[in-house]
Amino acid sequence: MSNHKCPKCGADMQEGFALRLPVRWIVGKPEKSFLGEIKAAGREQRHIESYRCVGCGYLESYATESIN
């Protein structure tokens, strides 16, 4: 995804990432395990592409490539 324009103000969007790794999208609502962690095993997971507007700071994210 390149050459994005902000849907709010029309300025350019800049690709970036969230610092906490790995950031991923997981299908369904979060469910806690017995130890209090979020269960992710066996669920569809995808990488996240994020963009920030250089004008107004609006953030836009896309769940793209599947994680196997």
Task: Give an overview in words.
Strand 3 and strand 4 form a beta hairpin. The protein has 68 residues and is mainly beta. It has strands at 13-16, 24-26, 45-53, 59-66. The relative contact order is 0.34. It is built from no helices and 4 strands. It has one domain (13-66). Helices cover 0% and strands 35% of the residues. Strands 1, 2, 3 and 4 form a 4-stranded antiparallel β-sheet that branches. The mean pLDDT is 88.
Helices and strands in order:
Layout: E1 13-16, E2 24-26, E3 45-53, E4 59-66
Antiparallel strand pairs: 1-3, 2-3, 3-4
Features:
about 0% helix; mainly beta; 4-stranded antiparallel beta sheet; about 70 residues
Basic shape: elongated
Give the N-terminus to C-terminus distance in angstroms. 21 Å
Number of strands: 4
Helical run tally: 0
Order of helices and strands: EEEE
Low-confidence stretches: none
The number of domains: 1
Largest sheet: 4 strands, antiparallel
Q: What radius of gyration results from the CA coordinates?
A: 15 Å
